[in-house]
Amino acid sequence: MYHIKADKRSQTSAKLISDALYECLKKKDFFDITITDVQRTSGTGRATFYRLFDNLSDVLFYQGEQIFKNILHKYKEHDNQTLDDFFIIFINHWIEHEKLLETIIKCNRSDILFNALYKNKDDFKIFFTELHIEESQLNYFLGFLTSVLTSVLSTWIKYNRRETPEQIYNNVQNCSKLFYHMMTKNPLQ
Questions:
Q1: Quick one: residue 43, left, alpha or beta (phi over 0 = left, psi -120 to 50 = alpha)?
Q2: Tens-digit pLDDT profile for the chain (189 aa)?
Q3: pTM of full prediction above 0.70
Q4: Could you tell me which of 8, 96, 44 has the C-alpha nearest to residue 18?
Q5: Which DSSP category does 123 fall into?
Q6: How far apart are CA 133 and CA 110, in angstroms?
Q7: CA-CA distances (angstroms) from residue 50 to 1, 25, 109?
Q8: Nearest-CA neighbor of 86 among 149, 29, 41?
């Protein structure tokens, strides 16, 4: 896990290390990158790296969390946005960070996406207040949504990366309708 304090120095060092890993990913596969590579690229000391992160996977997790925070910030910038808008913003942000997303998927660490989104679930709850869902159901709904969004990103990476965010959204809507139909109809009858 990472151990980044709220002070400016820790935040700056974490960003330098995060940016350095991203630069290294442009040249090497994740499993070929060493902490020394990241440390040298970032210009930070080895002790600084280990004060903030236990390993390189922690840096991936930190990067994922930062993307989710940016998504929430971008969404909150504008009034009267819908959940449809949120989905498009969500997909756009991850497409902009395609190399990171690809690395997470290649490393078989989709848990990073799931945990980063789920860690921010309380911030996401404000988007669902109009649904009037009980707290216990809301937690299940957020778990379901988190799994779906993680799977959608993984599918986009694994299969061609050609769809626009709008096309991805349409595919998800169609799959949701199909899923609902399957859940409400008994296919064995």
A1: left
A2: 889 999 999 999 999 999 999 999 999 999 999 999 999 999 999 999 999 999 999 999 999 999 988 888 887 787 777 778 888 888 999 999 999 999 998 898 888 888 887 777 777 666 666 667 787 787 787 778 878 888 898 899 888 888 999 999 999 999 989 988 888 876 555
A3: yes
A4: 44
A5: H
A6: 27
A7: 11, 20, 21
A8: 149
Integer Cα distance of 39 and 17 in angstroms: 7
**What are the tokens at 146?**
């988190």
| CB hemisphere CA count around 20 (13 angstroms) | 22
Say if CB 103 and CB 22 are below 8 A apart.
no
Structure tokens at 103: 């690395």
Distance of alpha carbon 68 from alpha carbon 74, whole angstroms:
10
Q: In the numeric block, which tokens belong to residue 49?
A: 């790296």
| Rounded CA separation 93/109 (Å) | 19
Token duo for residue 181 = 């139909």
Structure tokens at 153: 């990103």
Residue whose tokens read 């925070």: 69
In the 8-state DSSP scheme, what is residue 33?
-
